[in-house]
Design a protein that fits this description.
Layout: H1 2-23, H2 30-43, H3 60-76, H4 79-92, H5 101-128
Helix pairs in contact: 1-2, 1-3, 1-4, 2-3, 2-5
């Protein structure tokens, strides 16, 4: 069972890496390209939206959100584009795990926005009292 999970994780990593190359392909429609960029940025971000130390929810993005995002984008990409992208991914996958600074920036922006909303709500509540 553990080997099956490792194999699935390797396939997801390869697909995410292939999405990176597919997003750069001019044959891809703009909406698929945008979604592919967002999924790849989040997948390779060194920071998770929900930190892994949060019980149960911490691994939610790794187990559900990332595979679901990859699946959705794969449905939007023409087979010939994905074929070329997978070939490029296989050629470049040996170079190491990419890190997405865009994904990291998006996650940090979401956290800062949530923090600002919380501070605003608390400040509003204190001034009304």
């Amino acid at each position: 069972m553990l080997e099956n999970l490792k194999s699935h994780a390797r396939r997801l990593k390869r697909e995410a890496y292939a999405l990176y190359f597919a997003a750069r392909d001019p044959r891809l429609p703009w909406f698929a390209r945008l979604l592919a960029v967002l999924v790849v940025a989040y997948t390779f971000s060194p920071i998770d939206l929900i930190p892994d130390f949060v019980p149960v929810l911490g691994y939610l993005d790794d187990l559900i959100i990332v595979p679901l995002g990859i699946w959705l984008v794969l449905k939007l990409i023409p087979p010939e584009v994905m074929s070329d992208a997978r070939r490029q991914a296989d050629e470049h996958i040996q170079q190491g795990k990419p890190v997405s600074r865009l994904g990291m920036a998006l996650v940090i922006a979401i956290w800062l926005l949530l923090l600002a909303v919380i501070v605003w709500i608390v400040a509003r509540g204190v001034t009304r009292s």
